[in-house]
Specification:
Elements: E1 5-9, H1 15-24, E2 28-32, H2 36-43, H3 54-64, E3 67-70, E4 78-81, H4 96-105, E5 113-117, H5 125-134, E6 145-149, H6 159-165, E7 168-172, H7 175-185, E8 193-197, H8 198-229, H9 233-240, H10 263-270, H11 276-286, H12 288-300, E9 307-312, H13 327-336, E10 341-346, H14 360-364, E11 369-372, H15 384-390, E12 395-398, H16 405-410, E13 414-417
Parallel strand pairs: 1-2, 1-4, 2-3, 4-5, 5-6, 7-8, 9-10, 9-11, 11-12, 12-13
Antiparallel strand pairs: 6-7
The structure holds ligand SAJ.
């Protein structure tokens, strides 16, 4: 396909990798962001977010002249909106960034342009929020101005791989719009690209993450039931998943990040009376840190006076540095409310900031309980004999079924596993 000039609005975890991917394939990219620090770093061929290999690709794209960054949009063939759609205190979506980005491109729109929304958005965003604004351009929507929703579906930590390999859904305001966007993404997408309408694409994206949230809530509920029943939930799930039509997710301390813990609320917001299971799943997952805090209280009950707890892993999932909505952080906050508890944290991915972590041995020294909160790959190499030597009471709570319980028991640990031990 002929090379296009593409203006990418929003240079975060989705906008930047997408911009870089198009730039690497020969398109001319103008990246736009309101954050001056992002712009300055990019034009210097640096990035301020962490994602495997992204720094290398950004460097190449900037040096090649195919990627530049600025605070204002300019005329282009294609406009991609990849701004945040965060959740507000009342659990409704904050659409102000999508509105602002749509407004910002109006002066630059010309006949033949394509506008793509990538941000995860509640149903009706393209038709009811964006189209009335885009109509101000005077262009005929679907004829002179192609518009579509192409929701991103990539997993943090694997973004550059999944951008290429995953299947995509493109929902156009009409077929002509969807086809134009499909042809553009084909530049680098190796997966299938399925065409539909914009509202169906919006619903699909929210549904994918909601499916995962509901499935994880089921696994968490099962974990609690299995503890009561005196069986190992991890064994139950592993064995059930041998059935060709069963695929149960994993229990854990809850659901974090800015996608799975958020997107179900976009459905609940629009359909509060109908979204019963979805709302219950959200509450079930949100209740897991509280459930673990109660469990910890029971474990430490017999130890008099002050108790020291070391938490291994505080991010929202393994092998990433992101702590947003981390259920382990929620657990830490609950534990901090307990005046007898002193908390230390270990996380090779989080070195500074509000939740400052420590090296392993200083953190576990004198502790009465070590909690495995996140199964970072680095934790597989921990020498638990050395850890046990410096602890005061050798209690270990594994919330991910990551550690070798039998080996730890042999080392003299009291090993507690979420989903097994009541
Ligand atoms: N988790 C469990 N049990 C599991 C799986 C995950 O407790 O069996 C927890 C994790 O520990 C984590 C949270 O769920 O706290 C979410 O992690 P994740 O790796 O499942 O998902 P995200 O939020 O990093 O990325 C998701 C992905 N969606 C799906 O897999 C359906 C990704 O493809 C989306 O692009 C992304 O949301 C997004 O941006 O919407």
């Amino acid at each position: 396909m002929e090379k296009k000039k593409i203006c990418v609005m929003g240079l975060g975890y989705i906008g930047l990798p997408t911009a870089v991917m198009f730039a690497t394939h020969g398109h001319k990219i103008v990246g736009v962001d309101v954050n001056e620090a992002v712009i300055e770093a990019l034009n210097d061929a640096r990035i301020i977010i962490k994602e495997p290999y992204l720094d290398l690709l950004v460097h190449g794209a900037v040096i090649s002249g195919n990627l530049k960054a600025q605070t204002m949009p300019e005329e282009a063939d294609v406009f991609i909106i990849a701004v945040p759609t965060p959740i507000q205190h009342d659990k409704t979506a904050d659409m102000s960034f999508v509105t602002a980005a749509t407004r910002a491109i109006i002066p630059y729109l010309r006949a033949g342009n394509v506008v793509i929304l990538e941000s995860t958005s509640p149903t009706g965003t393209v038709n009811d929020l964006m189209l009335p604004i885009l109509a101000e351009s005077g262009l005929v929507i679907g004829e002179q101005l192609m518009v579509a929703h192409a929701p991103e579906r990539v997993l943090p930590g694997r973004i550059l791989i999944e951008l290429v390999e995953n299947n995509r859904i493109v929902g156009g305001v009409n077929l002509k719009s969807a086809e134009a966007v499909r042809d553009l993404y084909k530049t680098f997408v190796k997966g299938e690209i399925y065409l539909t309408d914009a509202t169906t694409a919006e619903m699909c994206k929210m549904t994918e993450n909601t499916y995962r949230d509901v499935n994880i809530a089921f696994a968490n509920e099962l974990a609690i039931i299995c503890e009561k029943a005196g069986v190992n939930a991890w064994d139950v799930i592993r064995l059930c998943n041998k059935h060709p039509r069963v695929s149960i997710h994993q229990p854990g301390p809850g659901v974090g990040g800015h996608c799975i813990a958020v997107d179900p609320w976009f459905i609940i917001e629009k359909y509060p009376d109908e979204a019963q299971i979805i709302a219950l799943a959200r509450r079930t997952n949100d209740a897991m840190p509280g459930y673990l805090a109660d469990k910890i209280e029971v474990i430490l009950n017999n130890i008099p006076g002050k108790k020291k707890i070391a938490v291994l892993g505080i991010t929202y999932k393994p092998d990433v540095e992101d702590i947003r909505e981390s259920p382990v952080i929620h657990l830490i906050e609950l534990l901090k409310n307990h005046q007898d508890y002193e908390i230390s944290m270990v996380d090779p991915y989080v070195r500074s900031g509000e939740y400052k972590t420590d090296e392993l041995l200083p953190a576990v020294k004198g502790s009465d309980l070590v909690i495995l909160g996140v199964n970072h790959k680095e934790f597989a190499a921990i020498d638990f004999a050395a850890v046990g030597d410096v602890m005061r009471n050798k209690n270990l709570l594994d919330t991910r079924n990551f550690l070798k319980g039998d080996d730890l028991t042999k080392l003299g640990f009291h090993y507690y596993l979420l989903g097994r031990d009541h």
